[in-house]
Amino acid sequence: MESSSSSSAGGLGSVDPQLQHFIEVETQKQRFQQLVHQMTELCWEKCMDKPGPKLDSRAEACFVNCGERFIDTSQFILNRLEQTQKSKPVFSESLPD
């Protein structure tokens, strides 16, 4: 078991730091784009009764409120997941060598 964990850790350590940073940035961009897509789809379904040439004030207010609630909810979930991750001990650290 030790060889598989050390080989995966060794594989991560051998990655070029610039490449690793580039991959992390691109992954963050992809996650952001997915969130925007989800929010757009959810709010469109919720707020658009019938598309027309202009957005009425009710639909505009609905879109603003929907977007704000989506962001608030996403932030709440991320914070909760962060707290959960911090409170859990890492399994590999608890094993004796």
Report on this structure.
This protein has four helices and no strands. The protein has 97 residues and is mainly α. Helix 2 (17-47) packs across helix 3. The longest helix has 31 residues, at 17-47. The protein starts with a helix and ends with a helix.
Keywords:
97 residues; elongated; disordered N terminus; single chain; mainly alpha
Briefly summarize what is shown.
With 97 residues, the chain is an all-alpha fold. The chain is built from 4 helices and no strands.
Percentage of β-strand residues = under 5%
Cα(first) to Cα(last) distance is 11 Å
Gyration radius, to the nearest Å? 21 Å
Helix content: over 70%
How many β-strand stretches? 0
SS field, number of helical segments: 4
Give, in order, the helices and strands. HHHH
pLDDT averaged residue by residue:
81
- Which runs of at least 5 residues are low in confidence (pLDDT < 50)? 1-11
- The dominant shape is elongated
Helix/sheet category: mainly alpha
- Give the biggest beta sheet: none
Secondary structure: elements and pairs:
Elements: H1 2-13, H2 17-47, H3 57-87, H4 91-94
Helix pairs in contact: 2-3
GO molecular function, one term: metal ion binding
Domain Tim10-like: 22-83
Subcellular location: Mitochondrion inner membrane
